[in-house]
Amino acid sequence: MITYLVAECRLDLYTRFLEPAGVVPAQRRTAELTAMIIQWVASAQGVAALPSWAIDQRQTHVVVRPLGRKGLAADLFALARAGDQGTAHLDAFVAMIRRESFRALDGITQVPGRGRTDPSSPSAGRRPGRRS
Fold first, then answer.
1. CA–CA separation, 40 vs 34, rounded Å?
2. Overall pTM surpassing 0.85 (yes/no)
3. SS3 letters for 8-35?
4. What CA–CA distance (Å, rounded) separates 53 from 34?
5. Count of CB atoms situated within 10 Å of the CB of 108
6. Which residue range forms the structural domain that includes residue 48?
7. Residue scoring higher pLDDT (103 or 129)
8. Tell me: the pLDDT tens digits for 27-55?
9. Number of domain units in the chain
10. Is the same domain home to 36 and 82?
11. Are 110 and 101 in contact, with CB atoms under 8 Å apart?
């Protein structure tokens, strides 16, 4: 199993898919870069679970499949230091993240009842299939 370099308890792959099924990978290899993970998978050095938006679906050297019947879904958040909230550059960055996320990510929906309801809201982006 090839994953990002974070604790297993912070990886949805483990906490929401493998552990509930009682599955423990024989080995785990970590990388910090998505490109490196994809290259290792393409060179038959392991398998990985990555967000669909992180993979170019036109790639022919890897096979892309959802995990489970519906795949895994997760909330997406933008974080900033409290002292930076309300600054023009941060507001512009968050607005761009919202705009591009709703434009480019399949299946993204607004989180009902959290913050403003427009796409520039700090809590607007959510993937279906996950409780708030």
1. 10
2. no
3. HHHCHHHHHHHHHHCCCCCCCEEECCHH
4. 11
5. 19
6. 2-54
7. 103
8. 999 999 999 999 999 999 999 998 877 87
9. 2
10. no
11. no
CATH number at residue 44: 3.40.190.10
Task: Give the whole-angstrom CA distance, residue 22 versus residue 115.
Answer: 37
Same-domain check for residues 80 and 128: yes
pLDDT digits (tens, 9 = 90+) for 107-130: 777 666 544 434 444 444 444 444
Does residue 63 form part of some domain?
no
Q: For residue 51, give every residue at least 6 positions away whose Cβ sits within 8 Å of its Cβ, in sequence order, or none.
A: 74
Nearest-angstrom CA–CA distance, 4 and 123: 25
CA 77 to chain centre: 10
Sign of CA dihedral 53, 58, 62, 67: positive
- Amino acid 130 reads R
CA distances from residue 55 to 58, 64, 83, 106 in whole angstroms, order as listed: 9, 8, 34, 13
